[in-house]
Fold this protein.
Amino acid sequence: MTLFHFVNCALLTFGPHVVYYSATPLSEYDTMGTSIKAAVVYLVTALIKLVCLATFLKVPENEGFDPYQEVMKVLIGLVDVAGLYFALTQLTHRNISQNHKFQAVGLGWAFADSVLHRLAPLWIGARGLEFTWEYIFQGLEANANLVMTLSLAALGSLMWLRKNKPKTLVPIIYACAFLLATMPSITSYLRKALEWQTREVVGFEIFSSLVMAFFSWQLFSACQRPL
Amino acid sequence: MAAPATTEAFSLSYSMFSLLLILFACVELGDAASAVHVYRLIQYDLGGVPLGSRISHLNHHAASLPLDPNADLSRSALLLPLLDLDLSFLTDYITNKKPLGGLVILLPQKLGNKFADFGKHVDLTRVKSVLNQLEDLLVHAELPYPVYFAYESSTFDSLLGDIRGKNFSSQPATSTNGGYKLVISTPEAKKLSPPTTSNFQGWLPGQKDGDSEQLPTIAIVASYDTFGAAPALSVGSDSNGSGVAALLEIARLFSRLYSNPKTRGKYNLLFGLTSGGPYNYNGTQKWLRSFDQRVIESIDYAICLNSVGSWENDLWMHVSKPPENVYIKEIYDGFSEVAQDMGFSINVKHKKINISNSRVAWEHEQFSRFRVTALTLSGLSAAPEFLQSTGNLHDTRKSADEKAVARTVKLVAESLARQIYEHKGKKLDIFADGSSLAVNVHHIQSWLDLLSRTPRVAPFLSKNNPFIAALKKELSDHTVDVHVQNEVLDGTFTFYDSTEATLNIYQVAGVTFDFLFLMVLGSYLIVLFSFLVITTRGLDDLINIFRRPAVRKSKST
């Protein structure tokens, strides 16, 4: 029966990615190659981040929130942004519109993130006899992560691929992008310093991802309008 | 176009929300799995009749009292705290052979060695009587399900609270509606080869006056092994750890006297630590059989020590020859003289031996069958039944008082000394407190501590156990000619292994929960799919996905 639970949680974690790919026009334009390339870039970025973390961070003595360590983690988190930049701009894509490009890159990025961070714990933990809510929360987190990555990819494409943007919106774009990039640090701050419970943190993630998605969508459509 | 879609979406989300509410109501947020050390009920065959718990692995949902009278417990493991035990309920279940998935009995912490100082306060006398009845019931019945003992802890307290809270819905937890699952995964118990028992003997030879006439011998004997409902917990501090501690102290005192040729008495002293006590003193019989007939004839009398750690003012002297017998009277007079000086009374109890009955209630009866005068000194007033008072669950360190053992030692030592050195009738205090021959309470205490930490059920106590080596060393320190006799126990008893295990407690969610979750997930994914199709491709595309087969059909006709 617990294999059942594993299947359920796997569906929750990876299902939305598959649904997103098949529901939107991405499947019609066959952007699978782009997604795969984005996933590979994510892998390389993750490795670089690991090396940086191992070199610069100290092992924490206590569980408390250490601001200097967190600032260091934020800086290393910007490596993520660099990777996304690379995936969006430097990889050669076939002729797909900008609209679809950021979606494909974001999807591939989020899928790789889910697989790397969540598949192994799921396989090992969710098949046991003991029932915990942990893996359901993890799946919800994966969903929120997908939305946030898509928003970040959208803002990224706005920042780096679109040449003509309304001047007033530029700082807002950069602010939103920075907020999205530092989202992991914000959640870890909530978890450690304010000691929120897991369900509260996941709720916050979902809520903030929807809010940021809304903002990104508005910004994107605002930039679509011909000047 | 947009209006019907939004109302549709709204109703969908509303139904999803209500489903989620039901989901959350089914299962509470629980702790992770816990693992607890548990001790199994003994499994044995007596003369071919299977007794005790016959199964060792457990994998059932936990249930507890109060229960629906018609509840089917064949797939539940019953958790029973000892203090709330309803013995009539359990007796009913066992005597009517009702099916039960498993039984876990929770003992108060005060009984354990580790928690004895921290446990909640309990009325130990009440606990003792309940435990005795429970053990009697369990040891003499055949139980085709696993039975385990565990100590109470906060884990079990919260577990019981949770289960009792759910009981108000009057449905024991099953695989469909979740609950707690108790899992003990051990392989099935295997038959043990007939156990080897070790009988120890040590001599303190007396001073011969030049002529080669054999000196008379006085034997002091105690059996050291135990038998109880839970072999891993059967430490028998009083029965018969107290006897062993007393014997070792007497041996120490007399070895001091006998080490100096000037104070060596004209009697040989034979110390015997026998095994096989609970099994009708089978080991004592084999030990006596191994002796030469001349040695047996030279034994004046034997003093057997049994359960001397729990008496206050009355000590009992059990004999099989009538008290009017001249030898018994002499010994009794010697004892009561010393007892009077020490301020307590000693009573004689006569129990005739029935040769046709194989039941041997006291160790001295084995001596009597070899025509040796013998008696048993005990704090117990009545002869224990078969497999009773042999190291039960309540018989832990607290039930043996080293001061009572010390009094017994002084009694026996003084009486023996007065006889050996021919000072009968004289008011003497050879082993006075504060003298170099004083009874060492700390020696007794340290042996009682060791005995209370060592479960000594014969089939599980191997020859190479460090405890056996410790006994041998202690005897060798104080006596000479230490000899260990290894014998195989008689064939009427067959034992099975697997006495301890680890209980894993899991909180499980039940199939219902999984199905509900799958429904919710499926509807979520479908909603997501529809939402994405509508927003990116338009509502027409969504409808076209479902209409395509119909369109094709109409085209073909």
Notes: The interface with chain B takes residues 1, 4-5, 8, 11-12, 15-16, 19-20, 22-25, 128-133, 136 of chain A (CB under 8 Å). DSSP finds eight helices and no strands in chain A. Chain A has a mean pLDDT of 81.
